[in-house]
Each structure stands twice: as structure tokens, then as C-alpha cells.
Write a structure and sequence with these properties.
The protein is α+β, with helices and mostly antiparallel strands. The protein folds into 2 domains: about 90 residues, no CATH class; about 60 residues, no CATH class. It is about 30% helix and about 15% strand. It has a 5-stranded antiparallel beta sheet with strand order 4-3-2-1-5, with no helix packed on it. β2 and β3 form a beta hairpin.
């Protein structure tokens, strides 16, 4: 609604049906179809743009022309917002890729290691463990590592959790083991 009524906020009620139409005819990734398709069983009709003076009735012509202007304005606002989100997301990404048989370090967040092993000072816990060998590429951004059989971590990890091992010297830092304590032995 903000995109539609940004220039004319006091007329929001007039454009509510258009906002509802846009929502119901947009693809939803969770259902893999539009809400319109779910209700009616077929895809929504394609929006046919209105050209000025297509209608002989002046009030209809004015309404449809205004509606077309709003639709074009909303498209522009959405395109600007989408570009801004893409730029923002890409600024935080690093272009990392690994080959099979490369060695990588596995990043474990200190605050999440509490489930793996108890530490008195999580700030001083190691962030990276390994190096471990990449044994397969799974999809476009996930890799399967050759982790020890004793590890309780799933071997397929997102590229953001990995850091390439550089050099010939291998400093082994093994994954922490679970400390069950005396009363929690498996």
C-alpha cells in the first residue's frame, strides 16, 4: 500500500482492491503458485495495459488512466527496492568456491558450541577447526567434508562456514567432543 499511495496517502482506500489483486496474482515460493491459482485452479489473467482514450466514458477513462499510472509507479518503486536489496545482499557475500580434495577449515560459532562442549569462556573458544578435505560439492553453495566419524556435525556445510586452507603446513585442530558429564553418559 505504501508503494501505491506514497504520493496520495489520503486515497489509500480507493486502491485497496488493486493491492489485493497484486497480492493474489503474485507467485508465492512456499506454495509454488499464486493464491489466485489456488482458489480458481488456473493462472490469473495477464494484465493488459490501458491506453488513454480507449474508453468513450470520461470518468472510466480517467480512472483507468490513473490506475495505469499507479501501476507503473509501483513497478518503478519495486524495481528500485529490488535493486537496493540485491546490492545490499551482494556487499556481504564473498565469492568462494572449493574443489574436491581441497582442504578447508570449518567455522563453528562459539555461542553454538555450547551444545557440543561446555566451555567457561566462549569468547576464547576456537572459531575454525580442521583442516578437513572436501569430498563432494553438493549443489551450488554446499560442500561435503571428510569429518571424523566421532563428530556429531552433519558433513554437508554451506560455503559461508568454510575457509580455504592455504600453505603446506597443516595445524590440526580437531572438533570438540561432547562432554556429557557423569550423569548424562549415553
Amino acid at each position: 500500500m505504501r508503494c501505491i499511495t506514497g504520493h496520495i496517502p489520503n486515497q489509500w482506500a480507493k486502491w485497496l482492491p488493486l493491492a489485493e489483486w497484486w497480492y493474489n496474482t503474485n507467485y508465492h515460493s512456499s506454495t509454488k503458485m499464486t493464491p489466485y491459482e489456488i482458489v480458481y485452479g488456473f493462472p490469473p489473467p495477464i494484465h493488459i495495459p490501458y491506453f488513454p482514450s480507449d474508453s468513450a466514458i470520461a470518468s472510466v477513462d480517467e480512472y483507468l488512466s490513473t490506475k495505469e499510472e499507479v501501476i507503473n509507479r509501483v513497478r518503478g518503486h519495486l524495481q528500485v527496492a529490488q535493486n537496493r536489496m540485491i546490492i545490499s545482499a551482494n556487499m556481504k557475500r564473498s565469492n568462494r568456491s572449493f574443489e574436491v580434495k581441497d582442504y578447508v577449515y570449518l567455522k563453528l560459532q562459539p555461542y553454538r558450541q555450547q551444545s557440543i562442549s561446555c566451555r567457561s569462556s566462549q569468547k576464547l573458544a576456537a572459531k575454525y577447526y580442521g583442516p578437513y578435505q572436501v569430498i563432494a560439492k553438493v549443489g551450488t553453495v554446499a560442500y561435503k567434508l571428510d569429518l571424523p566419524t566421532s563428530s556429531i556435525i552433519h558433513p554437508v556445510l554451506h560455503v559461508s562456514q568454510l575457509k580455504k586452507h592455504v600453505g603446506n603446513q597443516i595445524v590440526q585442530r580437531s572438533l570438540p567432543v561432547i562432554d556429557y558429564g557423569p550423569s548424562l553418559q549415553p
